[in-house]
Amino acid sequence: MSFKLTKSPTYVLTLLLSMGLSSCVSPEQKAANAQKALLSELEQKFKRFVESTPDLYKVSWKVCGDASLNLNRKINFGCDETRDIPTKGFQEPIFVWGPAGEIKFINKPSFADVSFLSTLFVKSRGCLLSGTPKEQQLYVVREFLLKKGSTPQPTDVKIEVVPKQEKEKILRNAVANAERENASLTNFGVSSNGLIPTGKTCPTIDEWKNDNQTTP
Fold first, then answer.
1. How far apart are CA 152 and CA 62, in angstroms?
2. Model-level pTM?
3. Do the domain assignments include residue 35?
4. Which residues, 6 or more positions from 75, have their beta carbon under 8 angstroms from its beta carbon?
5. Can the peptide bond before residue 197 be classed as cis, meaning omega within 30 degrees of 0?
6. Contact 185/201 with Cβ under 8 angstroms?
7. pLDDT, position 194
């Protein structure tokens, strides 16, 4: 009796695989394949997240008249200043969800007669560190302790849109940092830098008013 092949070689190969040829794969390889599939799915979700979110804006500043206990005053000449790649004596810029534009300082007396507190607000959809975009309004970006006689101005602050390629890199780092931070908080009850979390990250101006009981 002769055997006549009526199906294509591709069909036969698929059939053989479905009949158990795949059982030759080791448990380790199966686990590796599953891990690869999971990573691929997570990457696709991340890409969709990047595309679905608004533009990121970088907020940088140089506010002089620093009255805080600043051991690096000789480096930055008594200014609170950002650097894209911060070095000793400088701060990291803050990233906010766009659109971002209005800049506002609100000053209030400090516990010392020779200084005052100045809070920088930027109108945006919230800070990146707070998570996903929120309602557009004024959010706290930075608080400065300044010497009396200093006059912080909106011109001391620079806001610029982040290029899309850089946005993806920033978001990838933020997601990784958030995962580590959540694990630290869950397992130890403290943040990853060993400190007990205090206050709210990037509060709205209304939340700030409630906390400070101050009407600008």
1. 9
2. 0.74
3. no
4. 88, 89, 90
5. no
6. no
7. 57
63 contacts 91 by C-beta, under 8 angstroms:
no
Residue pair 65/147 in contact by the 8 Å Cβ criterion: yes
Amino acid 180 reads R
Say how many residues make up the chain: 216
Q: Letter for the amino acid at 172?
A: R
Residue type, 176: A
Give the pair of three-digit tokens for residue 44. 């696709």
Is the Cβ–Cβ distance between 156 and 63 less than 8 Å?
yes
> pLDDT digit string (tens) for 81-128?
999 887 887 889 999 999 999 999 999 886 667 889 999 999 999 998
| Mutual angle of helices 27-52 and 164-188, in 10-degree steps | 120
31 found inside a domain = no
Q: Is 104 left (phi over 0), alpha (psi -120 to 50) or beta?
A: beta
99 lies in some domain: yes
Does residue 177 lie in a domain region?
A: no
User: Tell me, what's the pLDDT at 61?
Assistant: 96
Helix (H, G, I), strand (E, B) or coil at 10: helix
Domain count for the chain, please give it.
Answer: 1
Residue 21: Cβ within 10 Å count: 12
Please give the Cα distance from 118 to 108 (Å, whole number).
Answer: 7
Measured distance CA(112)–CA(109) in Å, rounded: 8
Quote the domain boundaries for residue 107.
58-161+199-212
Helix (H) or strand (E) holding 123: strand 115-124
